Amino acid sequence: MNFVHDGLAAEFEHVTREGERKHISEQFDSGDALMQEIAYSLITGSHFEVARLVEQALGEGYTANDVLDDGLIAGMSIVGVKFRDNIIFVPEVLIAARAMKAGMVHIEPILSASGVEPLGTIIMGTVKGDLHDIGKNLCIMMLRGSGFVVIDLGVDTKPDEFVDAVTEHNAQIVGMSALLTTTMPNMGVTIEALEEAGLREEIKIMLGGAPVTASFAEDMGADGYGDNAIEAVDRAKEFVEANK
Questions:
Q1: Residue 82's CB: how many other CB atoms inside 10 A?
Q2: Class (C level, CATH) for 121-243
Q3: Which of 15, 204, 219, 240 is most exposed by smallest CB count within 10 Å?
Q4: From CA 134, how far away is CA 131, in angstroms rounded?
């Protein structure tokens, strides 16, 4: 791995889990100075700088996918890890998200015009009774950047709203989030609703949120669990590959 940006190298030191270090470091293997500058500007929330650098990169012949993967998503991956580990908090995440959106203004029209088929459609929502959405929104941003169509149902999502959304959008994956231990059982209630509607065999279900664990997800009857935004993307891609 070749870091040419000292600030980004320092940010990467916050990524302590071996699997995550490998995953994120692969996005910086090229040692491209401009992509690292975009990633660092995103992490520090410099949205005007991100917009300028993304526009510059596209003008210099970088592809939209390369800027997205090696610049924006690579930076947001580190933001996700820092948020999960309580190194940064909600305000910093929101600032980084604003910076990513500033870059996506230049990326999305190119991706849309290219006619690339999405990897799949995912329904995302925070379960009934829970109004927390920062972690969910971070996952949605990463999933969309990775090529998925994501339908965001927001917070306090009732089981029948998940059911209706799966049917309406012909989704392959459902992602549920909860931050309160008191609302976690509603994940199981929602899975039961999907079963009763005859949709369970047609979809994959992944759960996430601070108090949620892999064993809890298994007990609820889910297909997978994501500890953070990076893992959520990995699980979703695994589901898509399994369906192929």
A1: 19
A2: alpha beta
A3: 219
A4: 10
How many whole angstroms separate alpha carbon 70 and alpha carbon 83?
20
One-letter amino acid of 141: M
Answer yes or no: is pLDDT of 217 > 90: yes
- CA distance linking residue 231 with residue 113, whole number of Å: 29
Measured N-to-C along each axis, helices 33-43 and 90-114 cross at an angle, to the nearest 10 degrees, of 140
The angle that helices 134-145 and 90-114 make with each other, rounded to 10 degrees, is: 30
Q: Where are the domains of the chain?
A: 6-114, 121-243
For residue 162, the one-letter residue type is F
How far is it, in rounded angstroms, from Cα 72 to Cα 57?
Answer: 12
Of the pLDDT bands very low, low, confident and very high (cuts 50, 70, 90), residue 1 is: low
Within 10 Å of residue 202's Cβ, how many Cβ atoms?
Answer: 13
Question: pTM for the full model?
Answer: 0.82
Q: What angle do CA 97, 100, 101 make, to 5 degrees?
A: 90
Identify the burial level of 63 via C-beta atoms within 10 angstroms of its C-beta, where 0-12 means exposed, 13-18 middle and 19 or more buried: middle
The amino acid present at 244, given as its one-letter code, is: K
Per the structure block, which two tokens stand in for 165?
């959304």
What topology is assigned to 6-114 in CATH? 1.10.1240
